[in-house]
């Protein structure tokens, strides 16, 4: 057991740290053999480009990139393809959305408000090396077996129907280990469940407000806004993906049009015709109507209205396999309350 702890320098590295297998291949010298190395990480980065609409796409783009370095074969700088695959998955996986970029004109780290969807349940299998995928397969098969069994039982129950006098039998379960036997703090299935979200509200990295959204149990989450804590649901969490009115910054705002690619819809203008109404639709707050009479006022409002909470950091925890206990009596006998245990003989 001691060996399980000594391979890592800290608990943070043990439970939150993963490992990449990295291959570098020169694109300008076919005769140059690729080099292989390992890199440790404490988080995965989701880069947000024009084509990225889902978190997994942003993760993949970061794991396949190009760089320029000195080539020993060509004796000059050359372009290399860098390919990374995960060879160790941590128990707790942190994902950072790279939402800030340097805006030279204003000399600030501006925020990218693009809508990038993230899942409540994440499967990291396709990001892993073939060797790790093989190790993950046994536990993944057990998850599938349990899912298939539950589906079959649900179908049988539906076929039989449920009478008024039927009672629901609570089945006791036990949790299986989510780590490999020789690597405490790892993940042995590749399956993760979202546990917490950190959002940022603001226009740049040097300003704004951070809020934590933490899963309490099942579908119940807590929004922790400084000292104000309020319950929310998983549906509310998925609305933190960004997008909405923030896309106005990339569009030409025309108060005489309706709809368009951005998520605001112009209503029929009331009298006088010079006054226009825009319905602001965001993924967090209810729609509201705002009176605006110039294109510049509309554009300015749309830009400011884009300032709401966007997911910045996600924390995924291991999905734990819970299997039914076949002999409940035996299991209950083992669960002796702590206060009934007698002290050991001195």
TrEMBL record:
Catalyses which reaction(s): Thiol-dependent hydrolysis of ester, thioester, amide, peptide and isopeptide bonds formed by the C-terminal Gly of ubiquitin (a 76-residue protein attached to proteins as an intracellular targeting signal)
GO molecular function annotations of the record: cysteine-type deubiquitinase activity; proteasome binding
The UniProt record lists the keyword Hydrolase: yes
InterPro entries the record matches: Papain-like_cys_pep_sf (IPR038765), Peptidase_C19_UCH (IPR001394), UBP14-like (IPR044635), USP (IPR028889), USP_CS (IPR018200)
Cleaved signal peptide residues: none
Enzyme class, first EC level, given as a word: hydrolase
GO biological process: one example: proteasome-mediated ubiquitin-dependent protein catabolic process
Alphabetized UniProt keyword annotations: Hydrolase, Protease, Thiol protease, Ubl conjugation pathway
A matching Pfam family: UCH
USP domain boundaries: 1-250
Keyword Protease part of the UniProt annotation: yes
EC number: 3.4.19.12
PANTHER family assigned to the protein according to its UniProt record, in alphabetical order: UBIQUITIN CARBOXYL-TERMINAL HYDROLASE, UBIQUITIN CARBOXYL-TERMINAL HYDROLASE 14
UniProt protein name: ubiquitinyl hydrolase 1
Species of the source: Timema poppense (Walking stick)
